[in-house]
From TrEMBL:
Belongs to the UreD family. One of its GO terms (cellular component) is cytoplasm. PANTHER family: UREASE ACCESSORY PROTEIN D (PTHR33643:SF1). The gene is ureD. This is Urease accessory protein UreD. It comes from Lusitaniella coriacea LEGE 07157. InterPro entries: UreD. The keyword RNA-binding does not apply. GO terms for molecular function: nickel cation binding. Keywords: Chaperone, Cytoplasm, Nickel insertion. UreD, UreF and UreG form a complex that acts as a GTP-hydrolysis-dependent molecular chaperone, activating the urease apoprotein by helping to assemble the nickel containing metallocenter of UreC. The UreE protein probably delivers the nickel.
């Protein structure tokens, strides 16, 4: 617990290595409220599935959370969360989370957390920095729901800041910064949220994306985005692709992203992958 009885300073540090074709957790260190379950291997010993937990139930103003992962050469990790991450209405303080990922040559990280839900009045900042070695692969998605719309809540008070930086050999591959000072006008504006509470991104870097696969990704959007959401797919200057979503259905975007993940798995590893057991949608 931090200096304040109502906020946390939590850490999660994980170091993975490949040993004779098996990915192992070489070091795991956590402090409350962050925790990880024991690693498991539903796809065989090469791919380590890791489930992270937030044992306090949600993030509050003043919280400072830090996650650090290092994948040594040839290791392969899929990390997800046990449940959605909730960011509660702030008492005036900003909640912060910093994520640092280092992926060595030949290693592959699939960073696939469940969605983040910001309550109206939340003040939240997340910073992610990824260091990719040549030959490393990074697949990630991020799904953010702004407001508990099932309860009729809109995100019209508070602030959301999100920064993602992906670097390779000192060169930026992808820099994405988002800032939403919540207001009714930004909620309603077509240049803001347009009344849509969910924004999401899917990123793949380090895995070649052929024109045929890119077209399949777009076709998957056409077949799964059937609840009014909008999606787009593009390539990056380096080998990789970016998918964006804005809509109102968590299930819709999850179904699209999982379909893309399985497609890229099949293309890169000749296996569509086994969904983590905590994905109950």
């Amino acid at each position: 617990m931090s200096h304040s009885s109502s906020s946390w300073h939590g850490n999660l540090e994980l170091n993975y290595r490949d040993r004779n074709g098996a990915t192992q957790v070489q070091r795991a260190y956590t402090t409350a409220p962050l925790k990880v379950q024991r690693p498991f291997y539903p796809e065989g010993e090469k791919i380590c599935h890791t489930i992270a937990l937030h044992t306090a139930g949600g993030i509050v103003g003043g919280d400072r959370l830090s996650q650090n992962l290092h994948l040594q050469p040839q290791s392969h990790v899929l990390l997800t969360t046990a449940a959605a991450t909730k960011v509660y209405r702030s008492n005036g303080q900003q909640a912060q989370q910093t994520i640092t990922l280092k992926i060595d040559s030949g290693a592959r990280l699939e960073w696939l957390p469940q969605e983040t839900i910001l309550f109206n009045g939340a003040i939240y900042q997340q910073k992610m920095r990824v260091e990719l070695a040549p030959g490393a692969t990074f697949l990630a998605w991020e799904i953010t729901r702004l407001g508990r719309t099932a309860r009729g809540e809109q995100f019209v008070k508070g602030e959301w800041r999100n920064s993602t930086e992906i670097w390779q050999d000192g060169k930026p591959l992808w820099i994405d910064r988002q800032w939403l000072p919540a207001s009714q006008s930004l909620w309603d504006s077509p240049h803001g949220l347009g009344g849509q509470p969910i924004v999401a991104s899917f990123l793949c870097l380090g895995q070649p994306i052929s024109p045929e696969i890119l077209e399949k990704m777009r076709n998957l959007g056409a077949s799964t985005l059937n609840r009014g959401g909008l999606g787009g797919v593009t390539t990056t200057q380096e080998q990789g692709s970016i998918c964006r979503y804005r809509g109102a259905s968590t299930i819709e975007v999850k179904n699209w992203f999982v379909a893309i993940w399985q497609l890229l798995r099949l293309e890169g590893l000749q296996s569509s992958g086994i969904k983590p057991r905590v994905w109950q949608w």
